[in-house]
Amino acid sequence: MGFPILPFFLIFLIWLAIRIKTLDAKQEQQEEEFWAKEKAAKATPAKDISNLRYITIPIEKFPLNFSNDEKVIEIETQLKELSTHRLLNLSGVSNTDLKLTYGTSNFETMSQIGEDFDKACILLNSYAKALIEAGMENDAVNVLEFAIGVGTDISESYIMLSDCYKKRSQTEKLSFLRERILNSNLLLKNSILNKIDDSTEEDFSTSSPE
Prior knowledge:
The protein is an all-alpha fold. The chain has helices spanning 5-42, 70-82, 95-102, 107-133, 137-149, 155-167, 171-182, 189-207.
């Protein structure tokens, strides 16, 4: 007597049909919610954005003109320019949420403010690398601590700072950095923590007596 495949196949088809219908209904609901939110966003009046807690780059604290390298000079030039701009960490904020929060008429302005922040984080990371390569680790730490303090999402900045703390045996600062990453909304926080922990274990094993 053969195994009764047909009943199981029919059950699978019924389950598949129900599953597809459920997913279609969920997608339709999500689309309706999105367009309802977008409609509300477009009707949101302009908000006062003059008194927001903007971020400014403390360019006066950076060791400018320390290198003749054209790339470093360009980084400094762009950082100087951005130090005159208003910046905000708007990572993870959708265009619709920008309109809902600040008003449709402020959308372009707020988008630019967010883009400038992202650009600044990239430049600060590159600047810190150049400082480390030049043997100016103290200045690199200051730059990285500022970048991380304002919420950069560049993984390398966190890893570079942790390496600096390890070289200086600043275990308290390293623990604080790790805690900050753990409680953050960084998409790659687990990867960052793993790299920090792995390198910490390597440093420990290297320094341990045989």
